[in-house]
Amino acid sequence: MQPMEFRVLSYNIHKGFATNKRKFVLKQMRESIHLVKADLVFLQEVLGHHDQRDHRMSDWKTASQFEYMADSLWPHFAYGKNAVYSSGHHGNAILSKYPFTLFENIDISSNRYDRRGILHGVIKIPHHKEAIHVICIHLGLLESWRKNQIERLITQIEANVPKDAPLIVAGDFNDWRERITIRLSERLHLQEVFWKLYGEHARTFPSWFPVLKLDRIYTRGLHIAAAQCLTEGPWSKLSDHTALCAEFSL
Known about the structure:
Distance between the termini: 10 Å
CATH superfamily: Endonuclease/exonuclease/phosphatase
CATH class: Alpha Beta
Number of helices: 5
Strand content: 35-45%
């Protein structure tokens, strides 16, 4: 069987707003994401539903942003509702060209005010016997919260992902002190794609002048072919995070 190559994109879309939260740019985000032609898209801060909108936002979507993003390119998607409020909810989403055999959202919140979750899915790629486990995550702002949430992630993977199964974990880790990669490597043998290829994490925040290394793509059981931080063209004017793209072979 010939190795199969596929592309992954991870992006904190900031609920569809530009960096200053005044301009709604979800349409431009969708157009930019479509140009990447990724097979799997990991999204954070996705509005699943929101009734309220500003009158200045003519293209506001009250329906789910992940379905709008998926459009006709990704017929399969999973959404994990984390933060719920009177006007709607938001969370993480995974868009896929391949079907999910299952997915679940696991609550890893450290307190009732900052709701977080692990969106864990299993993807079946046609003509390949291996199923790929995919996890989209967005960790908390405080390090004490992140420590607890990473332990929950480790527990979830150890209990539910076979050691020989291909695995991708992607998202916004808020790990500005860069402590998580060593932990995930020691406990789960996960490799961070930029660290593996270039010896350092990608700078992803803020998008207009990336300094902090907050966003990551980790993998196990896959060959890392390439990785790129998308900072050129429109990317610096969309979300407050830049997007990460990686290519793998199965």
